[in-house]
Amino acid sequence: MKVYFTFDARPDLQKQLVEQFPEVEFVFRKGIHAEDLETAEVIVTYGEDLTDAHIEQAYNLKWIFVASAGIEQMPKQAIANKNILVSNVRGIHKKPMAESILAHILSLKRCLPYIYNNQRNKIWNKRGGRPTELNGSTALIIGPGAIGGEIGRLLQAFDVYTIGCNRSGNPAEYMNETYPLDELAEQLPKADIVISILPSTDETEHLIQYEHFELMPEHAIFMNFGRGNLVATDVLIRALEEKLIQHAVLDVFEEEPLPAESSLWDLDNVTISPHCSSHSSRYLERSFEILIPSLEKYLQGDTNLENKMEILRGY
């Protein structure tokens, strides 16, 4: 059986796989190579390089392991038509993403951008910046899954009251309260911090409208770390220009890379993070912690793998 990586994994991780699975032929490439595509039974990919034509050409393909959480750029219908098993690494992002989100919140609350700017300009001013406390705040987490739960856990350590909004309204881990998404509007006025970790689905596209920003307190921080199409870019710009909220922290955008001509670059109440909140030196290491036991099960004929996905639903 051939397992074909469309990226070149770290040498130590490659060695671990080869030694642990001597019966498997592993191929590590940068990009798509036709000869490997045609003969591989398993493909390991970041999910952005496969096309409809590739899926048609992959005659022996049975399983795609996606070393990422998002699959929106994958040829989903072609994969579904061939009943190809898909699983991903959902959950491995929770530690680095939660730390990134907490870092941004604390930076704004404790006026670190102001302090750094004064340092660059050799200004000694300990009375400016108007620092506030995270302690005692209320955070509304839209999409309290694995990542949202980890954010909730860290925020609760700062005595932050956490409210979750998910599809079902069922209780979620590390949320003091949980409500269904159709009650989002009722929860927004309570939130000092609004954090979205939602994936990209038909239901979540442009879920946040101008009216939602009107419902947020003027001192609110809005953070989008899920997918960029949660809110239309022009709506977001209008809300920030009108200062309906205090600040936005954006790690994802409708168009990536964010165009140089975008008005978002020029606003003083937005932090632009180039879709890097999940980056970590331990990213592939954590991915392999899911891949290895999944490969063991697959070799035994068990296709009930961790993070098995319904490809057409997007999760």
Count helical runs: 11
Helix content: 25-40%
According to CATH, what is the topology of the largest domain? Rossmann fold
The class by helix and strand makeup works out as alpha/beta
The overall strand count is 12
Q: State the assembly state of the protein chains.
A: single chain
Largest sheet: 7 strands, parallel
**Strand arrangement across the biggest beta sheet:** 8-7-6-9-10-11-12
Radius of gyration: 22 Å
CATH superfamily of the largest domain: NAD(P)-binding Rossmann-like Domain
Shape: elongated
Strand content: 15-25%
Broad CATH class of the largest domain: Alpha Beta
Mean pLDDT: 96
Number of domains: 2
Can you tell me the CATH architecture of the largest domain? Answer: 3-Layer(aba) Sandwich
Which spans have pLDDT < 50 for at least 5 consecutive residues?
A: none
Give the SSE string.
Answer: EHEHEHEHEHHEHEEHEHEHEEH
Distance between the termini: 27 Å
Protein name: D-2-hydroxyacid dehydrogenase
Domain D-isomer specific 2-hydroxyacid dehydrogenase NAD-binding: 102-277
InterPro entries: D-isomer_2_OHA_DH_cat_dom (IPR006139), D-isomer_DH_NAD-bd (IPR006140), NAD(P)-bd_dom_sf (IPR036291)
Domain D-isomer specific 2-hydroxyacid dehydrogenase catalytic: 24-304
Note down, in words, how this protein is organized:
34% of the residues are buried. The protein has helices spanning 11-20, 34-39, 52-57, 76-81, 94-109, 112-120, 146-157, 184-187, 210-215, 233-241, 283-299; strands spanning 2-5, 25-28, 42-45, 63-66, 85-88, 138-142, 161-166, 177-180, 193-196, 221-224, 247-250, 270-272. The chain folds into two domains: 2-90 and 281-299, NAD(P)-binding Rossmann-like Domain (Rossmann fold, 3-Layer(aba) Sandwich); 94-272, Rossmann fold (3-Layer(aba) Sandwich). The mean pLDDT is 96. With 315 residues, it is an alpha/beta fold. The protein has eleven helices and twelve strands. It starts with a strand and ends in a 16-residue tail after the last helix.
